[in-house]
């Protein structure tokens, strides 16, 4: 076998020690004949006379590596000899890491290219620098976590986070020639969002109490928050943090979140009323995205009185009363209490008050009961 380093010059000879002329020499690489077009493209020349043939490599390349066979033939027979050419070459770029910053969104999978070729196969190592004044430090890529190496040596970052923002340096070497290196800045943008734990909130208050609804939004600045009631905008949140009057009882305050990169917005409602029952919604936005947070406000109060009572079928032991179910005050009605006056058949005009004993109460409207009576009469 012949071992050479890429870039060197090389001549491989094939000669005969005996045999009758004329002798014809044929060269093969990996079992395929070397024909003139291939020789030109591969910068190989063939020199020969009646007793020898030689392959002249002007500059050895990695693709010259292979199994070469010299076949000598005359009219009496043929003889072949083979040898393996091993070419060592330093790393060369196949996919170089970009020098321009990569801009990705939080949660994305990021691939930073770093693919090289050479022999022996080059090994890629990655380094990270988190600040402009800092030094590059080795980056762990074999822990089975979010950051790993692709088969070709490129860097894969899954579920990218703001903490992944840094300068990434790829080095490739195989002990031959000069080491390759290139760095790529990574910027991770964070769309405006509400934390998942805060989704689908419900606030239950009593009528007349003061209400505070709060939304905590996070993401890259600038962040804004808008409030909606039944999908209609209430007001835009002021970046200065001052209150915005919506009506006499509504006000909104906002300020930067001191613990995280975000914004806090609070909607205050004084003396909650029945008309405040609604689905309120926070919508947060920044240049990279938006998110929404619905909050249901339930204002509980005493149920309304029954407006109309109708008397249905009467027998010796029972009477049927019918009424439309009143507004329940956003809380299930647990029972009804009725009183009646007994008119005595005497000359006396006195009247007695008694409580009714309910045998059964069914949910039914007055209109439904009237329709049932008409059907029975027919």
TrEMBL record:
Concerning InterPro entries, the annotation shows: Cell_Adh-Cytoskel_Orgn (IPR050958), FN3_dom (IPR003961), FN3_sf (IPR036116), Ig-like_dom (IPR007110), Ig-like_dom_sf (IPR036179), Ig-like_fold (IPR013783), Ig_I-set (IPR013098), Ig_sub (IPR003599)
Q: Which Pfam families match?
A: I-set, Ig_3
At the top level of its lineage, which domain of life is listed? Eukaryota
Cited PROSITE patterns: IG_LIKE
Name the PANTHER family for this protein. CONTACTIN 5 (PTHR45080), IG-LIKE DOMAIN-CONTAINING PROTEIN (PTHR45080:SF8)
Locate the Ig-like domain: which residues?
Answer: 1-86, 91-189, 191-300
The family database entries (SUPFAM superfamilies) matched by this protein are listed as:
Fibronectin type III, Immunoglobulin
Q: Which gene encodes it?
A: DSCAML1_1
Q: One GO molecular-function annotation for this sequence? A: axon guidance receptor activity
Name the species this protein comes from: Aceria tosichella
Q: Which SMART domains match?
A: IG, IGc2
Which Gene Ontology cellular component annotation is one that this UniProt entry carries?
A: axon
Q: Which UniProt keywords apply?
A: Disulfide bond, Immunoglobulin domain, Repeat, Signal
Where is the organism placed in the taxonomic lineage, from the top?
A: Eukaryota, Metazoa, Ecdysozoa, Arthropoda, Chelicerata
Which GO annotations describe the biological process of this protein?
A: homophilic cell adhesion via plasma membrane adhesion molecules; synapse organization
Output this protein's name.
Down syndrome cell adhesion molecule-like protein 1
């Amino acid at each position: 076998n012949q071992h050479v380093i890429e870039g060197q010059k090389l001549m491989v000879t094939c000669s005969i020690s005996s045999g009758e002329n004329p002798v014809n020499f044929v060269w093969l690489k990996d079992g395929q004949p070397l024909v003139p077009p291939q020789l030109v493209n591969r910068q190989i020349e063939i020199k020969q006379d009646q007793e020898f043939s030689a392959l002249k490599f002007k500059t050895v390349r990695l693709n010259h590596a292979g199994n070469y066979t010299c076949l000598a033939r005359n009219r009496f027979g043929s003889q072949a000899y083979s040898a393996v050419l091993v070419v060592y070459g330093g790393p060369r770029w196949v996919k170089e890491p970009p020098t321009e910053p990569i801009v990705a969104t939080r949660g994305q999978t990021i691939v930073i290219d770093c693919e090289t070729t050479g022999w022996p196969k080059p090994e890629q190592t990655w380094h990270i620098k988190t600040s402009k004044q800092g030094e590059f430090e080795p980056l762990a890529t074999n822990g089975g976590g979010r950051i790993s190496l692709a088969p070709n040596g490129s860097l894969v970052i899954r579920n990218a986070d703001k903490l992944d923002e840094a300068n990434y340096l790829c080095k490739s070497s195989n002990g031959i020639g000069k080491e390759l290196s290139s760095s790529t800045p990574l910027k991770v943008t964070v769309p405006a969002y509400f934390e998942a734990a805060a989704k689908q909130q419900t606030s239950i208050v009593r009528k007349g109490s003061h209400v505070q609804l709060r939304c905590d939004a996070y993401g890259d600045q600038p962040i804004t928050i808008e409030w909606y009631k039944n999908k209609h905008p209430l007001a835009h949140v002021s970046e200065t943090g001052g209150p915005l009057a919506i009506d006499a009882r509504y006000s909104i305050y906002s300020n930067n979140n001191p613990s995280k990169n975000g914004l806090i917005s609070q909607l205050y409602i004084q003396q909650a009323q029945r008309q405040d029952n609604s689905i309120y919604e926070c919508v947060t936005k920044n240049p990279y995205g938006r998110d929404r947070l619905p909050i249901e406000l339930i204002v509980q109060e005493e149920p309304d009185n029954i407006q109309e009572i109708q008397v249905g079928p009467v027998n010796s032991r029972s009477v049927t009363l019918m009424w439309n179910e009143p507004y329940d005050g956003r809380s299930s009605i647990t029972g009804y209490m009725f009183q009646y006056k007994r008119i005595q058949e005497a000359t006396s005009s006195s009247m007695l008050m008694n409580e009714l004993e309910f045998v059964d109460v069914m949910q039914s409207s007055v209109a439904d009961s009237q329709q049932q009576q008409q059907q029975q009469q027919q």
